[in-house]
């Protein structure tokens, strides 16, 4: 029986990107002037009492939800009754119709770009800017997460980025953004149900007990260097380049938008490092290395400003280890994308892959600030 874990990821993505089509926006006119209020904590049955008078609508379950919708013609009376009951309120949304219309100016698309080895969908979300015509000049950003199963912080951060994009995509200018929040759903599921430290996908190999291919060694650029032919190895590269359905799907989807791409970032953990190519060799310098380093430092400085977390900007092979067949090397070497990075998220090794969930929000916040700063600098080129 298939676990519900990947379903939770899909459901979360669906909620984040769900929106009504622009052609239906006129139906929101009936909500013009309506407000969303957050009531103070000790409200008791007050919202229900006021609702029974036809003055507001409780958004959620009675007794637990503190958010209410108040029609325009009821604003003064609802406020008066709440004050009489000693309940204060904060206005979360000034005009519900405008709020919904603003969100609909974004075009958000959730599509399956392929299937995993165990036939799970590989979901991609495309978030477009307010004015799609502006994105042609600005370019696009590709963010991939969860290609290594045990790196749980990676898809969590990707989902946070999606949330921020949907709520305020103007903060990254006019970039199109493509996000694959779970590139290895089979392995991710297995890391929950059977082996917390599982890294690879779930390919069945010829060696009993040695399943899986390292998807970040399966890309066709200097394939094989720093990887292994041994099916039992954690860095088993696969039988051939793009032998795996997951990497084929990622390759095909990325290739379709290659002319737009300005940035490709693959989210991993752990180490707090922003790695730039090449990964396959320490003896050759990638094109635009000085720009990769300079823009990388912009990311690191902005990320540090949030929670004082230090991200080092280092070369993959020279400062870490040789690893070929990775997303960032392929995107730069084959597609010619100028800015390609692997971002190793929190922490520096104290908890490693078993990062406490309390890190999810601060890690996501610092990455979001770093990404915004990085894209702002690139947009000026």
UniProtKB/TrEMBL annotation:
Which keywords does the record carry? Answer: Carboxypeptidase, Hydrolase, Metal-binding, Metalloprotease, Protease, Signal, Zinc
In this chain the Peptidase M14 domain maps to 85-378
- Residue ranges spanning the membrane: these are none
Q: Report any one BP term from Gene Ontology.
A: proteolysis
Recorded hits in SMART domains, A to Z, give: Zn_pept
| Gene Ontology CC terms, in alphabetical order | extracellular space
Q: What InterPro entries does this protein's entry cite?
A: Peptidase_M14
Q: Where is the active site?
A: 344 (proton donor/acceptor)
**What does this protein need as cofactor?**
Zn(2+)
Tell me the leader sequence span: 1-22
Q: Which SUPFAM superfamilies match?
A: Protease propeptides/inhibitors (SSF54897), Zn-dependent exopeptidases (SSF53187)
Q: Which PROSITE patterns match?
A: PEPTIDASE_M14
What is an example of a GO molecular function annotated in this UniProt entry?
A: zinc ion binding
Instruction: Return the Pfam families for the record.
Output: Peptidase_M14
| Entries under Gene3D superfamilies matching the protein | Zn peptidases
Annotated PANTHER family: FI01817P-RELATED (PTHR11705:SF91), PROTEASE FAMILY M14 CARBOXYPEPTIDASE A,B (PTHR11705)
Family as reported in the entry's similarity comment = Belongs to the peptidase M14 family.
Which protein are we looking at? Putative carboxypeptidase B-like
Naturally occurring in which organism (per UniProt): Penaeus vannamei (Whiteleg shrimp)
């Amino acid at each position: 029986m298939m676990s519900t874990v990947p379903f939770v990821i899909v459901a979360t993505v669906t909620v984040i990107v769900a929106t009504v089509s622009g052609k239906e926006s006129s139906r929101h006119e009936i909500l013009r002037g309506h407000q969303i209020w957050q009531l103070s904590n000790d409200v008791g049955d007050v919202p229900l009492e006021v609702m029974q008078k036809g003055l507001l609508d409780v958004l959620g379950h009675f007794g637990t939800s503190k958010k209410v919708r108040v029609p325009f013609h009821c604003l003064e009376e609802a406020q008066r009754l709440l004050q009489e009951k000693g309940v204060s309120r904060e206005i979360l949304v000034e005009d519900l119709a405008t709020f919904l219309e603003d969100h609909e100016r974004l075009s958000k698309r959730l599509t399956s770009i392929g299937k995993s080895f165990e036939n799970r969908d590989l979901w991609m979300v495309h978030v477009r800017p307010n004015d799609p015509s502006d994105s042609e000049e600005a370019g696009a950003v590709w963010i991939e997460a969860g290609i290594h199963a045990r790196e749980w912080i990676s898809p969590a951060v990707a989902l946070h980025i999606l949330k921020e994009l949907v709520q305020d995509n103007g903060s990254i200018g006019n970039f199109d953004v493509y996000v694959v929040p779970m590139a290895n759903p089979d392995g991710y599921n297995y890391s929950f149900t059977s082996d917390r430290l599982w890294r690879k996908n779930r390919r069945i190999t010829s060696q009993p007990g040695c399943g899986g291919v390292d998807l970040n060694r399966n890309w066709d650029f200097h394939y094989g260097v720093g990887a292994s032919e041994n099916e039992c190895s954690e860095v088993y590269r696969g039988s051939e380049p793009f032998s795996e359905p997951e990497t084929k799907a990622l390759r095909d989807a990325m290739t379709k938008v290659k002319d737009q791409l300005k940035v490709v970032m693959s989210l991993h953990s752990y180490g707090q490092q922003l790695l730039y190519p090449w990964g396959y060799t320490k003896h050759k310098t990638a094109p635009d290395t000085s720009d990769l380093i300079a823009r990388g430092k912009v990311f690191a400085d902005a990320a540090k400003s949030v929670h004082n977390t230090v991200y080092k900007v280092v070369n993959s092979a020279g400062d870490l280890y040789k690893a070929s067949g990775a997303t960032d090397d392929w995107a730069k070497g084959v597609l010619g994308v100028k800015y390609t990075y692997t971002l190793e998220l929190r922490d520096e090794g104290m908890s490693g892959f078993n990062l406490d969930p309390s890190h999810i929000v601060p890690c996501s916040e610092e990455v979001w600030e770093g990404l915004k700063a990085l894209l702002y600098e690139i947009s000026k080129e």
